[in-house]
Design brief:
Number of helices: 7
Number of strands: 0
Strand content: under 5%
Largest sheet: none
């Protein structure tokens, strides 16, 4: 189960990493249009912040799978694997899952309302649809919960057996 959940996070992270290419393309196009031809675009800002937000959020489960999130290793690295696993399992159970569960619940409602209203951006005259962008939030919540389950199981393994899988 852990391998399957890790594979989902790693696969999705590798797929969503490609969003950086159209984001950089939009930025480069905007810079050339604005400064090279004195003709700024109406759409580049919106495309850039939506792609960056999507890239950032959908990459979070990948980052969790790769142990890339911030941790206070000053003390943690000195602990035994059993104690590390115990603390991690406790924190996943009592902080991570409730917080991500609330995020998933709230962001699902946020995205659903946006879809129902057909919400569009107001930051530019282009007014792009932003409901697909808001859907990224509950998708991120699902991916984080799946990876959190994997990390929780690994933590329990370390807490019980005294070694990381």
């Amino acid at each position: 189960m852990v391998n399957t959940l890790d594979a989902i996070s790693l696969w999705s992270g590798r797929i969503f990493a490609w969003l950086i290419i159209p984001m950089v393309g939009a930025l480069v196009y905007e810079v050339f249009a604005r400064y090279g031809f004195n003709s700024p675009t109406l759409w580049a800002y919106d495309v850039t912040y939506m792609l960056y937000g999507t890239h950032f959020m959908l990459g979070s489960a990948y980052t969790l799978a790769r142990q890339g999130h911030i941790r206070t290793d000053f003390f943690y690295r000195l602990w035994s694997p059993r104690w590390q696993g115990t603390v991690d399992a406790f924190l996943y159970a009592f902080l991570f899952f409730p917080a991500i569960g609330f995020f998933l619940w709230d962001s699902s409602d946020f995205a659903m309302v946006s879809w129902i209203r057909g919400e569009v951006g107001i930051s530019s005259p282009w007014s792009p649809p932003i409901y697909p962008f808001k859907t990224v939030m509950p998708v991120t919540g699902v991916l984080l919960i799946l990876q959190g389950i994997s990390e929780f199981v690994k933590s329990l393994h370390a807490a019980i057996l005294g070694e990381w899988p």
